[in-house]
Amino acid sequence: MGELSFPNRGCDPIECEKAMTGIRNNRSWRWPAVIALLVLSGCGRAPSFDVLGSFFPAWLVCLAAAVLLTFLVRWLSSRLRITLAPPILIYPSLGAFFTFVLWLILFH
């Protein structure tokens, strides 16, 4: 069997140099890149907890505490015979509320 040959898919060196010069001289991409670097530089280190060598994000700890607080509110409302209607909206909203409040209190 003979060797497979591929046609020259490259470009002429003069044409390649012209194309690269056009890319180098095009400055329209530089300002968006600089702005993106300045804006994203604030995304440094997220607060996290070290639990037995594994790092857990702080929002996960706030979510776990919020679930416990939501169960506490449910238990208290049932003991006091307070009806919260509709529960499918109330309890997830309470969980989100407690998560956000704990995050703001503990980490900001």
What labels would you give this structure?
108 residues; mainly alpha; two-stranded antiparallel ribbon; 62% helix; 7% strand
- Over all CA atoms, what is the radius of gyration? 29 Å
Structural class: mainly alpha
How many helices? The count is 4
Q: How would you classify the quaternary structure?
A: single chain
The low-confidence runs, each spanning 5 or more residues with pLDDT under 50, are none
**Mean of pLDDT:** 80
Relative strand content: 5-15%
Write down how many β-strands occur, each being a DSSP E stretch of 2 or more residues. 2
Helix share, percent: 55-70%
Name the shape in a single word: elongated
Going across the biggest sheet, name each strand in turn: 1-2
Biggest sheet details: 2 strands, antiparallel
Distance between the termini: 71 Å
Q: Secondary-structure element order, as H and E?
A: HHEEHH
What this model shows, in words?
By secondary structure, the chain is mainly alpha-helical. It has a domain at 48-107. 62% of the residues lie in helices and 7% in strands. It contains 4 helices and 2 strands; from the N terminus they run ααββαα. The protein has helices spanning 13-25, 30-40, 58-79, 87-107; strands at 48-51, 54-57. It has a two-stranded antiparallel sheet with strand order 1-2. Helix 3 packs across helix 4. The longest helix is centred in the middle third of the chain and has 22 residues, at 58-79. The mean pLDDT is 80.
